[in-house]
Amino acid sequence: MTVINFSKINYKKKRDRVYYKSVTGKDSQICLMKLEKGEKTDHSHENEQLGYVVSGEVDVFIGNETYTLKPGDAYYIPGNTRHGFHVKTENPVEYIEVFTPPKPDNVY
Amino acid sequence: MTVINFSKINYKKKRDRVYYKSVTGKDSQICLMKLEKGEKTDHSHENEQLGYVVSGEVDVFIGNETYTLKPGDAYYIPGNTRHGFHVKTENPVEYIEVFTPPKPDNVY
């Protein structure tokens, strides 16, 4: 399957406040994430991560830098770099996450 | 620079009818592309490609399959697979392209 209409498939629940849709290739993976108010992460992984905010707003820290991301903002998180997302707004944030290599726990 | 506000930077012209903004990592690259009416491509490259349509509409063929992509649609093009995009609408299409590994000609 090479085309997936994200708007016609349901989000899968990853855990409380975190939902995803994704397409997984051989070397990389594109996810549409939905994070709800209160979600706050702090971790690192070997996978390189790129992204783009579709709707809503989210605070992100990448290493020692902190940003508020809004629709149209893109970001890059090198592999093995501590980072986290924090949703402070009432509305959820929807954003693209790209992982290289793919993350098994994000396969749809 | 780990965050780039695409909405605050200008598109760069790649060629007639094709414009881009991008963030390039070590292993992968995320591009926001804008293609104008009449743009039609037919090529293949070793880079794996994933994407997501932000606005507008575009026809794509991937191998022997053809689709019309609209906002919210995602796609996957394996490396070394013939594919092409064709814009038939008056309005341009804007969509995310992710390349693994990065494409030098898409570095912003």
What does this structure look like?
2 copies of one chain form a homodimer. Chain A is an all-beta fold and 108 residues long. Chain A has a single domain, classed as Jelly Rolls (Sandwich), CATH 2.60.120. Chain A is 0% helix and 52% strand. Chain A has no helices and 10 strands. Chain A has strands spanning 3-5, 12-15, 18-24, 29-35, 48-55, 58-62, 65-69, 73-77, 83-86, 93-100. In chain A, strand 3 (18-24) and strand 4 form a beta hairpin. At the A-B interface, strand 1, strand 3, strand 4, strand 5 and strand 7 of A face strand 1, strand 3, strand 4, strand 5 and strand 7 of B. Strand 8 of chain A pairs antiparallel with strand 1 of chain B.
Shape of chain A: globular
Question: What is the straight-line distance between the termini of chain A?
Answer: 12 Å
Strand content of chain A: over 45%
CATH class of chain A, named Mainly Beta
| Helix and strand sequence of chain A | EEEEEEEEEE
Which bin fits the share of residues in helices of chain A? under 10%
**Biggest interface and residues each:** A-B, 41 and 41 residues
CATH superfamily of chain A: Jelly Rolls
| Assembly context of the chains | homodimer
Q: How is the CATH topology of chain A named?
A: Jelly Rolls
Radius of gyration of chain A: 13 Å
**Helices and strands of chain A: which structural class?**
mainly beta
Name of the CATH architecture of chain A: Sandwich
Total separate domains of chain A: 1
Uncertain runs of chain A = none
Q: Give the biggest beta sheet of chain A.
A: 6 strands, antiparallel
**How are the strands of the biggest sheet of chain A laid out side by side?**
2-3-4-10-5-8
Average per-residue pLDDT of chain A, rounded, comes to 95
Q: How many beta-strand segments of chain A?
A: 10
Number of helices of chain A: 0
